[in-house]
Design brief:
The protein is an alpha/beta fold. 25% of the residues lie in helices and 32% in strands. It is globular. The two termini are 34 Å apart. 43% of the residues are buried.
């Protein structure tokens, strides 16, 4: 199977209001499923935002109630859900927090990814992950390369995911104003240089000291924008055909022409 219907849910996030954010996400996931979405992507830390002042309350263990709830929803609706939450991990040395990207499929967490490049203030609160690896779906012949927000600026992340077999690049983000043009350029660039579809899901709305522009996009393997949101809350849906990737790569043989002996 090469075609898959993907929904990018662009939503506002109420800072530290987990119950309200999850309720909205569940409603929008239901709408996406009713339109045939098979893979559903939510923005970065969709359930809490960057709730720095209440990390202990906003965070959860990997088997916590938020991912359990999404797992039940995934199982019931036969859909795949991709996003991130604030993860807490306790040990004798204390508690560490991670920005945990996840992929839930058929009620099971198929793969996770701890954000490896925290941005600015995030460095004070989050421990960076140390593994970059794509997520192989079990029910479809598709592998997802997941990266988180600031990592859009690091072409090495997307390139590694591509070389490791990712079929679709997924970026979940809280990219703020005024960087809309930069966002659009980077989203297209990552698709063009790796010649693979790119689903870039950004939040909208505002926090007390930051505003967000949305502009979520789904871009094909040639870098063409297929669907794009404005600043309003919305659901983007597009049928991504990974079979088209091989055609793009045959016309311009970027990956074959790489000089791995030099870089």
């Amino acid at each position: 199977m090469t075609k898959v219907r993907i929904a990018c849910i662009q939503t506002d996030i109420c800072l530290c209001r987990k119950e309200k954010n999850i309720e909205k996400a569940l409603s929008m996931i239901g709408r996406a499923v009713s339109e045939g979405a098979e893979i559903i992507v939510l923005p970065e830390v969709f359930s809490t935002g960057f709730c720095y002042e209440h990390m202990s309350d906003s965070s959860e263990a990997r088997d916590g109630p938020t991912l359990e709830l999404l797992s039940d929803l995934s199982r019931t609706n036969g859909c795949i859900i991709v996003s991130s939450v604030i993860e807490s991990e306790s040990s004798e040395e204390g508690t560490k927090y991670f920005n945990l990207g996840f992929c839930i499929e058929a009620g099971v967490i198929t793969g996770t990814y701890r954000k490896t490049h925290p941005f600015n203030k995030e460095k004070q609160y989050f421990t960076p992950g140390n593994v970059i690896s794509p997520i192989k779906l079990q029910s479809k012949d598709i592998t997802i390369g997941l990266q988180i927000c600031y990592e859009l600026r690091f072409p090495e992340v997307a390139r590694k995911l591509s070389l490791m077999g990712a079929d679709i690049l997924v970026t979940i983000a809280e990219f703020p104003k005024p960087r809309r043009e930069l966002w659009q350029t980077l989203v297209r660039a990552r698709a063009i240089e790796n010649q693979m579809p790119h689903v870039a899901c950004n939040r909208t709305g505002s926090d007390p000291d930051t505003s967000f522009f949305g502009t979520s996009m789904i871009v094909d393997a040639s870098g063409e924008i297929k669907v794009k949101a404005g600043e309003e809350e919305s659901i983007l849906i597009y049928d991504v055909d990974t079979a088209e990737t091989s055609g793009v790569r045959e016309v311009i043989t970027v990956l074959k022409d790489r000089r791995a002996d030099l870089y």
